[in-house]
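queue> pop job 88
queue> type: inverse folding (structure -> sequence)
queue> payload:
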């Protein structure tokens, strides 16, 4: 439960944010670090695409990071379970506990990156789960904007642009062929109705059905 998976094969857009992350986490960049490494908080509504964008960034820049870990930050239990998993994977005994994973990373003099994903619960003190080291890279995704206090850099992820929305919709809704111009127009229209909201776009019905439905 600490392995980072790939982003969706239908991942679309978000170029600006991806390059902002790339600049921020560039080891050569002169951006000030917080007392414990580089932390980027990505916040915004549930379903807007925070997790996917973070995964895409880490996937694209895998070469830059020597170790990539996922901390499932929904609850204290899941955070501890993720660090425990890291401890076990790195040779600690079962009796060591989750703290061993956290301390192990703090001592690791490498370009590691941790994704604290879905840190939505405002009652969790995430600070105590950040490795106490003056280096390292962390992305925190959350619905909760107050977590920006932990970071030097943060960004609110908003809904997709109309163009991104239509593209994403087409990838899900027209799979059998290259979309034609009628389908493209329809996609812009439907995506707008769905407020270019990623979670809604990926669950939209096939567009050929939508076109047929609206004809009657
Ligand atoms: N840029 C994107 N490209 C393709 N699919 C996306 C994109 N952003 C989000 N999605 C899809 O939308 C849904 C919600 O995205 P997710 O990243 O889990 O949102 P959040 O973490 O903000 O709650 C997922 O099914 C995801 O695959
Ligand atoms: Mg998420």
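queue> result:
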């Amino acid at each position: 439960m600490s392995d980072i998976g790939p982003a969706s094969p239908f991942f679309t857009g978000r170029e600006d944010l991806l390059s902002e992350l790339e600049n921020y986490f560039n080891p050569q960049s002169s951006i000030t670090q917080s007392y414990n490494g580089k932390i980027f908080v990505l916040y915004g509504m549930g379903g807007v695409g925070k997790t996917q964008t973070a995964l895409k960034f880490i996937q694209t820049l895998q070469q830059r990071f020597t170790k990539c870990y996922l901390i499932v930050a929904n609850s204290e239990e899941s955070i501890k379970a993720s660090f425990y998993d890291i401890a076990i994977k790195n040779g600690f005994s079962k009796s060591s506990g989750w703290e061993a994973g956290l301390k192990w990373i703090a001592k690791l003099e490498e370009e590691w990156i941790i994704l604290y994903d879905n840190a939505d619960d405002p009652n969790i003190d995430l600070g105590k789960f950040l490795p106490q080291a003056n280096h390292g890279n962390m992305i925190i995704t959350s619905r909760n904007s107050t977590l920006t206090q932990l970071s030097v850099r943060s960004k609110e992820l908003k809904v997709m642009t109309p163009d991104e929305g239509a593209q994403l919709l087409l990838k899900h809704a027209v799979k059998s062929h290259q979309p034609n111009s009628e389908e493209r127009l329809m996609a812009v229209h439907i995506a707008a109705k769905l407020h270019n909201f990623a979670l809604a776009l990926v669950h939209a019905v096939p567009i050929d059905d939508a076109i047929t439905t609206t004809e009657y």
